[in-house]
Specification:
membrane, mainly alpha, 20 helices, 457 residues, 77% helix, transport, Growth Hormone, Chain: A
């Protein structure tokens, strides 16, 4: 597998190396001591886990209970659509957060921004736990929910991009795939925590108590995310790549403008790569919960158990796929996940519709652990290697969050609408999922292999 340019159709070739507008074009990679690398990695994993715990808590609640609490006057299907609509609103805010905080990360440093985004996400999530429901304040309840969801989206817009940038810029080139996959391990742990807390609370309480006050507990626990995450991230050193840019006075003053001018087709390669990864994450972990409980009349504990098992499986598969990408390249691993998602969509529904609790749990877990996490585990290294040092934070955050509006953010809403329009048939939903896989697979085939690139350039 080559480590430089790859051919586009015809005689066109894709310029992998960025055309840097600053004072220097090529640098030696900054040396990072073992302690700094360890601290950066631990910060990325723990901070991202706490951040995505907050984010998935909302998604799980939207799939399971928010239709009853905030949209009780609507039918079950319409209420679910409305709940996923508030969920999608956060994705509309994420590009703004990605641009604003990504720009700040390229101007002022990766570390400072990561502290701010974590505190903002934790505060908004905790506030949801105090929100009165529709029964108490009427339409003000869903409006307040939307406002808090927007704040969540602003924070999430730069969280993952900043974490993988910091981790990748601190890692040696030969092990970058492994270390850049570890923030994804944080996403996995956040999913595990959120699904686990909901699973425990749901099983310790009656249905009435759970709907009355139990659902608030997972949101209120975000106070620990604020305290622990902020403390951990304040102990981390700044990225050595950014410190080198500052030392050479080569920090860009207009990262967004420069990024669009210089990224060229690499921006759209990354954009396409997001579709299957982003859509499959919310398809497997969020929408499937609503599908099996409302369409198949399966206990929500079955779906939560599948998500828990899948997140647990990811503790092994995520670092493995990252490690493997350091040996065979980023593209083969990413393509494996994308093709598995597309080819496996119809079998996924067949197994869900079997009605077997064990098959449903295993199907959800394997889909998450192998298809989604294969893509997500190498995305951090791949995207860092696609973009230049001066605009990297902005580029990764922008491409991730703008693409999320068209992929993951609206996926549960679109899947629910397609299921309803198809009279309960999963076939339109499966076709939609396959289309997302095709977009990503074509983008990856056209795109370059980037393994081994110097991130200081």
């Amino acid at each position: 597998m080559t480590q430089g340019n790859s051919s586009l159709p015809g005689n066109t070739r894709l310029d992998v190396e960025p055309r840097v507008a600053g004072k220097a074009h090529s640098h030696a990679a900054p040396k990072v001591d073992a302690r700094s690398l360890r601290n950066a990695t631990v910060s990325a994993v723990i901070g991202t886990a706490l951040e995505w715990y907050d984010f998935y808590i909302y998604a799980t609640a939207a799939a399971l209970i928010f239709n009853k609490l905030f949209f009780p006057s609507l039918s079950s299907s319409a209420g679910t659509l409305a709940a996923f609509g508030t969920y999608a609103v956060g994705f509309l805010a994420r590009p703004i957060g990605g641009v604003v905080f990504g720009r700040a990360g390229d101007l002022y440093g990766r570390k400072k921004v990561l502290v701010i985004t974590l505190v903002l996400m934790g505060s908004a999530t905790m506030a949801i736990g105090f929100m009165p429901t529709y029964a108490s304040i009427g339409m003000a309840a869903p409006i307040g929910l939307i406002v808090l969801r927007i704040l969540q989206g602003l924070a999430a817009g730069a969280e993952y991009g900043g974490a993988v940038t910091l981790a990748a810029e601190c890692a040696p080139a030969s092990k970058r795939g492994f270390y850049a996959s570890l923030p994804t391990l944080g996403v996995c742990l956040g999913t595990l925590l959120s699904a686990g807390v909901f699973f425990i609370v749901n099983n310790l309480m009656s249905e009435a108590d759970f709907l009355g006050y139990g659902w608030r507990i997972p949101f209120l626990l975000s106070v620990f995310a604020i305290a622990a995450g902020a403390y951990i991230r304040r102990q981390v050193n700044e990225s050595p790549v950014f410190e080198q840019l500052k030392k050479e006075k080569n920090v860009t003053k207009e990262p967004l403008k420069e990024m669009f001018r210089e990224a060229g087709p690499r921006f759209w390669i990354a954009f396409a790569a997001r579709f299957a990864e982003n859509m499959s994450g919310y398809f497997f972990q969020i929408w499937t919960l609503a599908y099996i409980t409302k369409q198949l009349a399966v206990s929500r504990n079955i779906g939560l158990a599948g998500v828990l098992l899948g997140a647990s499986l990811g503790i092994v598969t995520i670092p493995f796929f990252g490690w493997l990408s350091d040996r065979v390249g980023r593209k083969p691993i990413y393509l494996f996940g994308s093709l598995l998602f597309g080819i496996g969509t119809f079998p996924y529904f067949w197994l869900l519709n079997s009605g077997s609790s064990l098959l449903i749990i295993a199907t959800i877990a394997i889909a998450i652990g192998f298809s989604n996490y294969a893509m997500l585990s190498v995305q951090g290294a791949y995207f860092n290697e696609l973009f230049g040092a001066r605009t990297r934070f902005t580029a990764i955050s922008t491409v991730r969050e703008v693409s999320a509006v068209f992929a993951g953010g609206i996926a549960p809403f679109i899947c629910t609408a397609l299921l309803q329009a198809g009279g309960g048939s999963y076939i339109p939903v499966a076709i939609y999922a396959i289309a997302m896989a095709v977009i990503t697979s074509v983008g990856l085939i056209i795109g370059p292999e980037t393994r081994g690139r110097n991130l200081a350039d």
